[in-house]
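Retro notes (design track)

What went well: tokenization of the new backbones is finally stable.
What didn't: we kept losing track of which sequence belonged to which structure.
Fix going forward: every design gets posted as structure first, then sequence, in one message. First example under the new rule, 205 residues:
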């Protein structure tokens, strides 16, 4: 016999509603292109890839003994869910980034509010920790999130950069947090930055 909604635990019913709602993340299209330049990625794909990359790159984290990889993964797995309601905001679009935090905070309260109250509060705390980037775990999570689209752009035709006229200075400013998280990743960033400039993917300003 199947289980109808009235037979399910209330908490599980809310978690199921949350799961079905976050499926919409697959429909949020980002500015970044896939590594083969065939199409733009969606945010669910980006979320999967940063969670994977955090695990791969964790050995390169500075002060790794102070970090909690599971905590980092949990932050990365949920922080972009706000884009279901707030949309994807391109990192280098200064105008679009005005009011971004307020829009996304409202979206976070809405999406996590579908969950049972204790879980909703826990997920909102993860989201806020990521956004404020004041803990070592959040700094590393932010670094992973920032460098991955940069890696993809530097290994392709950099379409999301070239179509927006992104400059070297903008990239350096927006990705500076990597230096706080991992010296190897920071070295990788600078190497790929030089290569991107040589390829003409960024404006040298």
């Amino acid at each position: 016999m199947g289980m109808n909604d009235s037979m399910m635990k209330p908490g599980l019913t809310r978690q199921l509603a949350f799961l079905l709602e976050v499926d919409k993340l697959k429909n949020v299209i980002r500015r970044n292109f896939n590594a083969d330049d065939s199409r733009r990625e969606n945010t669910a794909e980006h979320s999967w890839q940063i969670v994977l990359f955090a695990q791969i790159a964790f050995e390169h984290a500075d002060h790794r003994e102070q970090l909690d990889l599971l905590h980092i993964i949990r932050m990365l797995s949920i922080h972009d869910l706000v884009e279901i309601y707030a949309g994807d905001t391109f990192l280098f679009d200064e105008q679009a980034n005005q009011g971004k935090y307020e829009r996304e905070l409202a979206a976070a309260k809405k999406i996590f509010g579908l969950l049972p109250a204790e879980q909703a509060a826990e997920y909102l705390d993860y989201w806020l920790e990521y956004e404020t980037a004041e803990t070592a775990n959040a700094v590393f999570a932010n670094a992973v999130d920032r460098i991955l689209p940069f890696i993809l752009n530097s290994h392709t035709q950099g379409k999301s950069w070239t179509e927006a006229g992104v400059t070297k200075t903008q990239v350096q400013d927006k990705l500076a947090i990597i230096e706080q998280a991992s010296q190897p990743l920071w070295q990788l960033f600078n190497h790929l930055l030089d290569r991107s400039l040589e390829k003409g993917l960024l404006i040298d300003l």
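Added context from the reviewer: The chain has a mean pLDDT of 93.
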